[in-house]
Amino acid sequence: MGRSDALIEFGIALPIALLFATGIAWVVQRVFRRRLSLPLSVMILVSILGLSAGMLLAGSLFSGLRLWMPTTIVLAFACSAGLSFLAAGIAAVITGGSGNADVPAMLAAGESDRVEFKETARWNVREVKKDARMEQVVAKTVAAFLNSAGGTLVIGVDDAGTPIGLDRDYATLRTPDADRFELWLRDMLASSLGKNAAALPRVRFARVDGAEICIVRCPRAAEPVFVSAGGSTELWVRVGNSTRAFGVDEAVSYVARRFKPSVTEMILRRR
């Protein structure tokens, strides 16, 4: 039996193209950093589409080209990089233009059942020192928003909505900047809430009146999120403008009422 060289070439090229698409997407994310809201998976898909567009362009402009010829490779990766940076730039402009515009209005509106202000995340203002209890307050607030209708936690703002900044929290980090702060925040939430829950909030930073603040937007979680602290596990829920821990009986009732499985989930569980 004969062999198909075209299929063999495609089988070799497919994982290589995926590897290079991932590399291009990673580079784009490193360049745009916090300005890019698109996840890596989306950027990989855009990069793959760019590779495909480049190969189509090469086949349309030049006759007799094969997959591994330099012209094909150069056009494919040039289109992939160009499309990836274009998509990232558009996304950064859209989120940058509309993302920070609502922050002053949100601070002026004050705290509510969907908005909570925290002056610091690690620094105890009264005792003038780093305090793990402050971290737990942040974790409980995020969990409460996830367990309720969602909400936004703003760090670096006092109770009156005045931007204070993150300088005191930054001073507790090895590298005092926003990237290290977000890394610490993600790690802390993963330790307290679990990795799946820690991946849900969207973290971004904004500068208001010269002070840099952190905005943590929490969606409504699809399953209950529990806070682990000191060997105990607690369910925290947003009740009005406050964050409240539910006892065992309340937690069981709330979870049963709030996190009802869908018909699809019930069918899949029975199988």
General description of the model:
The chain has a 4-stranded mixed β-sheet. The protein has a 3-stranded antiparallel β-sheet with strand order 7-8-9. The chain is built from 10 helices and 9 strands. The protein has helices spanning 5-32, 40-61, 70-99, 102-109, 132-147, 167-170, 178-193, 195-198, 248-258, 263-270; strands at 115-118, 123-124, 129-130, 151-155, 202-208, 211-218, 226-229, 232-239, 242-246. It is α+β, with helices and mostly antiparallel strands. The chain is elongated and about 75 Å long. The longest helix is centred in the N-terminal third of the chain and has 30 residues, at 70-99. Helix 1 packs across helix 2 (40-61), helix 1 runs parallel beside helix 3 and helix 5 crosses helix 7 (178-193). 54% of the residues lie in helices and 17% in strands. It folds into 2 domains: 5-99, no CATH class; 103-270, Schlafen, AAA domain (Methyltransferase, Cobalt-precorrin-4 Transmethylase, Domain 2, 2-Layer Sandwich), CATH 3.30.950.30.
